[in-house]
Amino acid sequence: MTAADAFGSPSGPGPHQPAAGRGGAGLLDLRPAPAAATRARMFAAQTRLELILTLRRGESVLLTMIIPIGLLAFFTAVDVLPSGTEKSVDFLVPGVLALAVMSTAFTGQAIATGFERSYGVLKRLGATPLPRSILLAGKTAAVLAVEVIQLVLLVAVGFALGWDPAGGAGAVPSVLALLVLGTAAFSGLGLLMAGTLRAEATLAAANGVYLLLLLIGGVVFPLSKLPGWLRAIAEVLPTAALSDGLRDVLADGSGPGVRNLVVLAVWAVVTLGLAARTFRWE
Amino acid sequence: MAEILAISVTGLVKTYSTRSVPSRSGAARAEGSRGPGRRGRRGSAAPSLRPAPFTEVSTTPATFAAPAGRGTPSDSRIRAVDNLSLSVPVGSVTALLGPNGAGKTTTVEICEGFRRADAGEVRILGLDPIGDAVALRPRVGVMLQAGGMYPGARAGEMLRLVAAHHRHPLDPAALLDRLGLTDSAGTPFRRLSGGQQQRLSLAMAVVGRPELVFLDEPTAGLDVAGRRTTWELIEELRTAGVTVVLTTHAMDEAERLADQVIIINRGRVVAVGSPAELTRGGAEGQLRFRAPTGLELGKLLLALPEGTTAHEGPVGHYLVQGTVDPQLLAAVTAWCAGNGVLAEDLRVEQRTLEDVFVELTGSELVS
Asked: B225 touching A, CB under 8 A?
């Protein structure tokens, strides 16, 4: 006889009844009724809370919403950018979209996950029936949801500022492919950092890398303004690949560029693979 | 029906490098030269980093100096758990009692599947805590000593999240109400008081209606009312057939709640039994009374069972030592009555669990 059998009969019909405690204190039915929820329910609950927590954090809203929109509005208005014949806003929207993806998938996710690890959240959730794959899927879904909000806001602000994207409806698949690959690459980088560094180190490094990639990622001014050696480095970094690819599609009406897709894909595979191998849950 | 074991642990061994003793890592070791500092940080997470089994199996004696050349004493290993065996019957409340650093939390975390033992066999509900983790997680509730919450999540959100991981959870609102947390349900975790955080953590351990719960210091830092609420919930869990394993520093907690007390010291079990068995066993009871000085104790002893002793300590203060049972008590009072002596202030003194603990571990408890 196993311990599980011992619980079958004496606890009676308990396992298949919902908790009976609605009436208030003292009526909790504590009899064992252990079973994992469905994966769909766990995924929904996890995604929902991750999303709520992200949108509740002031610094995260600043990072993912206010800074990208602010940069777009500011540089469009002051028109300091020597972007030749094209309108500033046409140059800026693709770059700021890349920045938005980076801020959510990389910076925000790295910092939040790093602190969750140091606070023991990941350890604690590991003791519930929640599989790690669903924990990560929930995080990814929350990141994608924030990106949808960013996309809607930035596109709306862009149109309000006179943005005139090229390519029409045919550009949508290319843009989606770039955004998904970019999200994967930045998530991998963020989780790699969060899973190996201390939370405070992750906080510093994620902000530092964010600033660096903002400056040399082709977000607010073109890579052609960089010195040759720096440009060579920048071109293989994910931010430049994403902003460049989006600009090829949305400003020039061409394809996303094979090199950009390859750079993003390589970053995604390498960082996600390394993160999976090195991630520490506590 | 044979007793069914919820937990069976045999010959458990867990060693840590002194650099990586859990929850004692951090600032203290960050000092020193750059090299060791870096290694220290990396080392501090090594136990969880290396999932490979038995990487830390040690066939060497309890502690050993590291090989010469690297032979700083800090490279030696600490046996947090040293050949520890215990068993927990289904439906019981078991208290693991021990001083700080005795190995309680390490033992519990191995049972929870958070850490891998270096050697020994652990069966939780008949299963392996790591290999069968997927099957065990719905059945086992866990309360960590601290942390484990999204700092920005509200108490109610956190409990509902864990409830959503289970198919037949308790109603989170009713559970919060029961633990006196209804008014805090909308408060972010980081703004809860220590006692509220503890009770929320307890709620998260039981919300999934587990068969077995591990409570690591469930009442540390709670006020009197919080302790009572927690104790009542634990007693109800037992009534409902849930097996409870808790660690504690608090004697009164162990004495009140536990069917079985396991005293752990230096990574070993030093005593096991019900609180009554532990306080009765070993040294025997004492009977004290006051009476006029100069009683003829030799005659008293004739009326008492073999092996009983009697002394007059300070003038008029008598001490009878032996197996203190109702018969002994009756014999003493009858003898006094027969001799026209009024025994005043008669009292039976038993050892408390605290006395037992101090004898066994040589350390005072800090509660």
From this structure: no
